[in-house]
Amino acid sequence: MNEFARKRRVALVGTGHRGAGTWGRELLANCGQWVEFVGLCDRNSLRLERARAAIGTAAPVFTDPHAMLSATTPDMLIVCTRDDTHAEMIVAALEAGVDLLTEKPMTTTAEMCRRILEAERRTGRRVDVGFNYRFSPTAKTIKEVLLSGEIGEIVSVDFHWYLDVQHGADYFRRWHAFLTHSGSLFVHKATHHFDLLNWYLASDPQEVFARGALHHYGRAGPFRGPRCKTCPHASICDFHIDIGRDPWLDMLYEDPSREDGYFRDACVFREEIDIFDTMSAAILYESGVQVSYSLNTFMPIEGHHLAFNGTKGRVEIRQYERQAWETPDEDEILVMRNFGAAERIRIPHQPGGHFGGDLALQRMLFAPGATDPLGQRAGARAGAISVLTGVAAVESASTGQPVKVKPLLDEPNAA
Length: 415
Ligand SMILES: NC(=O)c1ccc[n+]([C@@H]2O[C@H](COP(=O)([O-])OP(=O)(O)OC[C@H]3O[C@@H](n4cnc5c(N)ncnc54)[C@H](O)[C@@H]3O)[C@@H](O)[C@H]2O)c1
Description:
InterPro entries: Gfo/Idh/MocA-like_OxRdtase_C, Gfo/Idh/MocA-like_OxRdtase_N, Gfo/Idh/MocA_Oxidoreductases, NAD(P)-bd_dom_sf
Domain Gfo/Idh/MocA-like oxidoreductase N-terminal: 9-131
Structural class: alpha/beta
Protein name: Putative oxidoreductase protein
Domain Gfo/Idh/MocA-like oxidoreductase C-terminal: 143-405
Bound molecules: nicotinamide-adenine-dinucleotide
GO molecular function, one term: nucleotide binding
Number of strands: 15
Radius of gyration: 21 Å
CATH topology of the largest domain: Dihydrodipicolinate Reductase, domain 2
Order of helices and strands: EHEHEHEHEHEHEHHHHEHHEEEEEEHHE
């Protein structure tokens, strides 16, 4: 029987916002003709039941991923748990002979990257990493412009990502705020950006020199409480949120928190927060390209500024996702030639998360006969290289020394 003559039997672990939403109900709406859920798993049984109803599936539910894998023998596992738990799920699926799609970051440490790559080699199964940004129409067009040779050989890149006081703060309300769970935003968030760079440049990072600081959240804050809902400073705190005003998050998290104490509105000023909120890195690529990268998390704008500087010209984009003024519902890529004319390429925003990137990624994975001429699908190696860039950045920011990326792929005692 042809691989696509029947629906792909998919199991999902991690039924939080991303699992229940993008990889649950949106996946069925977008690709339901090719996909069926055969199992859902979350260690929080209350969230799990709510997610099953929201997704609209009758698939059996499990609180143990290993039990789900052996009971349902899926074709594919989708991993949407907390970042530091991905490796355990990925290796278990590979060893059960199951292909998988993991949310980014693939994992959070060099040791876990090595374990995943070894398990993939040993089992011969396939790992896909959900780098949805590669799939936005704008990223695809930038890749095409770079491949056209229009700006000559790329020599440097300016890449600056801005998270605003809503989205940026959200990372400080939850587990992302702790190095041990997210690897820091150099891993959790920047994995997207480092992956985009690796894909755009078709080269691997060689060495990273980074800096990081905590200027605004955590112990830098003026006061603190355990969570917004019960906070005595609610009336004077700019970061106060009322979770009840978001019916989706309220449904998935608020009542289920009585099972595991996982609140969506924990205080952004908790003393114990140990990640940076302000980061920069100088990255040297094996191709010789020099990258200036930064990530800021309490800005009045959400979006990014990106420019490729080549021997014959420059490609530039300023993408705004949220800002205090009106912007058109499109991106504009500027292609500038040295001593020549500039061209504006306008790309309308597409529906769906990440300007259409989420839906395009899903169709690439599940639509029969999908082709991949630009190499947008990302495997475990791409997942690892982008994580290791972040791991190197954290180490560099801590030691003040540049850190080489590739040696992190080798076993510590390997010759
Ligand atoms: N690609 C993107 O743009 C994008 C966007 C948002 C989130 N993400 C990624 O998706 C993943 C999930 O994000 P989220 O915001 O939904 O997180 P979340 O913490 O809200 O949800 C994760 C769920 O996994 C469950 N879980 C955790 N450990 C588990 C375990 N060992 N076994 C079973 N269940 C377990 C939790 O109970 C929770 O319900 C993260 O890796 C995140 O980085 C990616």
